[in-house]
């Protein structure tokens, strides 16, 4: 994706404001990013207990006067915030599950949703592990023909604050819920759930045992439980589009998950993403497409399985995407 040349000057200036706030207020990078975002949104530099100092306030104001977000489209602002967060990831130790979904994958998911919901003017969309919101905002900014109600759930308050900040800077309306995605959800039933699922074991066995996909011994996989939770959150005929480990169903724990999907819905597609997007074979991810029963939804005549070609092979990649779109039109009916 080509970067709007107007993004870079804003990126440099905001980076300077974050560094000033870190030094003056003894903040870590992300707290300073949140602070500078709040200053931008309120149009006023927040001073508490004498910090930032008057000299710093003067420097900050000079820098904020150089920031121009009005000339940027919403997705350019998303990219700006994404780049600021990525800079923070180089400074702060983060969990692997907190890494942002690459834009290439986000745009693929946006295309899938565009095809599936091509006849829908309104759409409710939930990200079950919204994090900083980058994937959700990518989808919202690339579904221009729909009136989309976007929602996100996450149990990390810092990530959720960054998501809220990004949404306000983009002027994109979303509802964000600070809760464990495996607790009873505060969100209504939705047309689609999309999520780059956190991978690993869920530590609270007592809660996991309430789900059909829990392991009989030891901890259960969080991503399995979240798929089950997502299916229960969908409206009849709704779709779930998930980023999952490529070997999702190649472990003994995958069998209960398949059974549960088949019990209340349909497994429509499992497509391995291009290997070149990942550091090694073990890290490779896939797109899982499931659909809940009801409203004339039905099992595809044949589950779509396959591997995306490498993106550098442009003709092959484009042809594969075309075949995927044709499959969705023929097999994934949403009313």
From TrEMBL:
CDD domains: AdoMet_MTases
UniProt keyword Methyltransferase, yes or no: yes
GO biological process, one term: methylation
Pfam family of the protein (one): YtxK_like
GO MF annotations in UniProt: DNA binding; N-methyltransferase activity
Coiled-coil stretches noted in the UniProt entry, renumbered to this chain: none
Regions that span the bilayer: none
InterPro entries documented for this protein: DNA_methylase_A-5 (IPR003356), DNA_Protect_Modify (IPR052933), S-AdoMet-dep_Ade-MeTrfase_prd (IPR016843), SAM-dependent_MTases_sf (IPR029063), YtxK-like_N (IPR048375)
Record keywords: Methyltransferase, Transferase
SUPFAM superfamilies from the UniProt entry: S-adenosyl-L-methionine-dependent methyltransferases (SSF53335)
Domain of life: Bacteria
Domain DNA methylase adenine-specific, chain residue ranges per copy: 99-313
Record carries keyword Methyltransferase: yes
Domain YtxK-like N-terminal helical: 12-88
Record protein name field: N-6 DNA methylase
